[in-house]
Amino acid sequence: MNSPAPHEVQNPALTDLLARFVHTLDLAAVPAPALAVARNCIMDTVGVALAGVAEPVGGKIIDFVREEGAAPAATVFGAGFRTSAADAALANGTTGHALDFDDVSPPMRGHPSVVCAIAALAAAEAAGKSGADVLAGYVAGVEVMVCLAYAVGRKHYDSGWHSTSTLGSIAAAASAAKVRGLDLDQTRVALAIGASMSSGLRRNFGSMTKPLHAGHAARNGVTAAALAARGFTADAAVIEAPLGFLALFSEHPAPEAAARLGQEWGIVKPGLNLKRHPCCYAAHHAIDAALELRAEHGLTGAEVERIDVLVAPKGLTAVIHPRPLTGLEGKFSLPYTVAAALVDGAVPMSAFTDQQVMRPALQTLLRKVHAREAEGDPVSVETPRFADVTLTLAGGRTVQKRVQYPRGAAANPMTQEELDAKFRDCAAVCLPAPAVEEALAMLHGIDRLPDLRALMTVLGGSAR
């Protein structure tokens, strides 16, 4: 008997396994540490989405969904109007990723919460579901997304796919299906529809289309669940079967990795990394190293003659703009973010305007940055990243710092006070101070909300 071709992934029945996990997930079975992370990640996602409303891409996507004129079912954050659940997910997912300030998952090398939390919130508001339903949908989606990351392996991202969008479309379908309470067959169909909607190219990093990927995935998930609820059909083995998702999106698929689903909670191990800086996470290790060197040695950047940055294998894959000319390109530039850290002593939201990136002092210093990857290949999707930053100062003296876990990483978490402060800073872009505090209190206890009406009234803000 002939063996299947390498691309003909047959077992296990991954689509069914994922659907059963989503359908049977009970919040009572989720460990308390995982639920605590989930609440904070939902809160963090809402905060950065509110901040993203003020970005140029935020205004454009909000104007787009407003002009669509869909029936008002779900809230567009900070915009003062409601639209369809799918369009709300599109807008809020896009603003949620506009600043690149949302959390990341090491295995997937992408952003789970901006897809899963946004899809869960839109689906829940439209269907009149509770905050506990949102939390369950969020956890289901993130666990599915991490599971798929192990199944597709590192090559998926390295080959040019943006996993936030490709894996995210399926994960958002899982979140929305759980929120809506779909039965097992409907859940399986929702995942299969989401798989056919998957897309997203890393080449668009540094443009408005990069945050659109997150909104696109969230909308896909909400749409997939809605169609499944209406009796749509789809292939029951679309993820693992020949011509299916893994066969097309992965060179070396590992569907057996799904065995960990429900046994190890990806939201806790390896966990989710929340961001202290509003830019690509691949730059955070070097940013933190530069900030530590600046503080320890009283540097301002003017005395630096050369900056050498050594990162983990494949550590430069996402930071594709060595000589940025715009704020968006600056978010994906290791030289710019390291230079900004040294000159300014911080890398805040205001660092990523075109004017800030083009400052002569920054353009001069970023050209002194020489970044390279360590030799070898990453062992697995969980291989820790690092950055070694060496500064050569006037006179030839050198100082060096290594960072493996930036502040906010699961292994080096921010305090609750720091997370709350980040939310306040972000939400204040759209909301008055009393509304920020009201939203924060409700998000801290989201699973105690009987419905989302009060929360969404606050998050909607005023019409722009």
Features:
single chain, 464 residues, alpha+beta, 2-methylcitrate dehydratase PrpD, 60s Ribosomal Protein L30, Chain: A, 2 domains, four-stranded mixed β-sheet, two-stranded antiparallel ribbon, 20 helices, 51% helix, disordered N terminus
* Biggest sheet statistics: 4 strands, mixed
How many helices? The count is 20
Number of domains: 2
Whole-number mean pLDDT: 93
Structural class: alpha+beta
CATH superfamily of the largest domain: 2-methylcitrate dehydratase PrpD
CATH topology of the largest domain: 2-methylcitrate dehydratase PrpD
Percentage beta strand: 5-15%
Fold blueprint:
Layout: H1 14-24, H2 32-52, H3 56-68, E1 74-76, E2 81-83, H4 85-98, H5 113-127, H6 131-152, H7 155-158, H8 163-180, H9 184-197, H10 209-229, H11 245-249, H12 267-271, H13 284-297, E3 304-311, H14 327-330, H15 334-344, H16 354-357, H17 360-366, E4 369-373, E5 387-393, E6 398-403, H18 416-427, H19 433-444, H20 453-460
Helix pairs in contact: 1-8, 1-9, 2-4, 2-5, 2-18, 3-4, 4-5, 4-10, 5-6, 5-8, 5-10, 6-8, 8-9, 8-10, 9-10, 13-15, 15-17, 18-19
Protein architecture, described:
The protein is α+β, with helices and mostly antiparallel strands. It has 2 domains: 14-271, 2-methylcitrate dehydratase PrpD (Orthogonal Bundle), CATH 1.10.4100; 281-403, 2-methylcitrate dehydratase PrpD (60s Ribosomal Protein L30, Chain: A), CATH 3.30.1330. Helix content is 51%, strand content 7%. It contains 20 helices and 6 strands. The strands form 2 sheets. Strands 4-3-5-6 form a 4-stranded mixed β-sheet. Strand 5 and strand 6 form a beta hairpin. The longest helix is centred in the N-terminal third of the chain and has 22 residues, at 131-152. The protein is globular and about 70 Å long.
